[in-house]
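Model it.
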Amino acid sequence: MPSSPSLATGPAPASPPRVVRDRRADLIVVLVALALAVWVTSGLWRDPNVRTITVNSSDQALFEWLLAFGGHAVTHGENPLFTYLINVPDGVNLAVNTSITVYAVVFAPLTYLIGAPATFLVILTLNLFATALAWYWLLSRHLVRSRLAAGVGGLFIAYSPGMVSHANAHLNWTAGWLVPLLIWRLFALRRPGHWLRDGVILGVLVAVAFSIAAEGLFFTALALGVFVAVWALHPARRAEARAALPNFVRGLAVTAVVAAVLLSYPLWLHFAGPQRFHGTGFDPVIHSEDIAAFAAFPRRSLAGEVGLGTSLAPNPTEENSFFGIGLLVLTVVCFVALWRRADAGRRATLWALGALALIFTVLSFGPVAKVDGRRTDLPMPFDLLGQLPVVNAALPARLALVVAPVIGVLLAYTVDQLRAAPPRHRSTQLAWALGFAVALLPLLPTPLLTHEREPIPQFITSGTWRQYVSPDGVLTPVPLPVDIYPDGQRWQAYALSHRQGEFRIPGGFFLGPGGPDGRGRIGPVPRTLSALMDQAGRTGLVPIVTDGTIREVRSDLRHWRIETVVLADEVHGAKFPVDEDAVRRTATALFGEPQRVDDVWLWRIPPA
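Modeled.
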């Protein structure tokens, strides 16, 4: 960005043929970006209300619930950042979860029109598409002259292995279009005379980014801080940085004030509100990037389809690097070629990009290094940084996501340089073309894996549930709702988005207090009833029920104030199939014989 050609006095207006070529290139990039976005998500487009992402259906159910709840909260005057609809009676602090509030509000009309699952798919597809366009716009209008170079860089970043991996249901991490906008507005703070306006614009953008992807905003801020510091300290840029510093600082101050005002309540909830926690329950060693993963191939790619994928990530949604050995070699060659032909100013930019990639690569290794799945005793810098507030809530493996835009920018710079001064020898041109093909073609994304999910029971879709739950009453499916049993939130999302009214549920998929050492955990601390139903659903074995068990279960029912227990004929298990028959026999042993209502088994729980 600092070496942007648009910041200097521009050339004379382009001739019509050049304008036509540029517009044609813009259109081609738009069409390719849209085609790739639809291609990656094509499995869901077959029927978004029936199909779910195979490897991460629990997160998909969570984001669908967040869309339904957020729209309902805004249209009914409820708090969109704290709710008692789940985790009865304590509620859930959504400010410390991934609440995607902006998406929930903006897309509320669409959610009411077509339902939460279809809205989820629209946002996921638009995220990938918009990320490609935003990076293409930043590159083509501010960093390179060649539209081809900008297209290569923008499309690579948007459909890099990390982005495709997080397309497995992460609406927050796939919102990569926020990053180039933040970069653009940050460097606009250098302009003299506009620091107030530019600071306000950036402050609003920061608030929007926080409300969609707070962890991504944090990583972007860290990355930009590292880049600006390294760039400004380079001898070739010190004078320029010193001259721009007063405007830059004033603009940042305005940004901080505007963002703090807009985010005052969410930040209070996040750091001091009820149901908060410090850190997360995720093991930073498990959720760190394997050193070998940088040279490995991702599963959802052409290379992965032919069997070259690996299992070096903790799960298929966290393949945050996985660039392949070919792209790593090409990146190094590009960097060296650019360095050799760069002037002092461009070398400052390359130096900052290289430092940024190296720092975030090492940090992504987590507290201790892992190589090809084997943990070593070699301590890493994150072992110290991971103890800091806010940093302790981040997953170190995701820091590798910062490396992909660096690679994309280097690829764009290289193509731009090759277009401006093509090699004299045809063999050299062919070598470059072959290098790009060998590095990038294996990484072409393939569609996300999907499968049919268990249908929402007619008992819910028809609204029959309202006859068995008092206003603001508590209904629970069995097994009780947690991340691996998302039915409760799926049913609740349907009721909210179809204006059926509210029912509350115990538990749910959320981050809350209760983990070791005061850290967070997924879902509530298990109680007897939830543990018994989980055991039956997992193993197919009915647990032994004693008088003591009955007393503990009755205590749980009073704690949750449950009125109605429901078992669907088909229960969705996010990680394994659920034995519905064992769950029904366990519930019968605890609550007595059920009644059949529509297509569910139902137990009425008398008041305490």
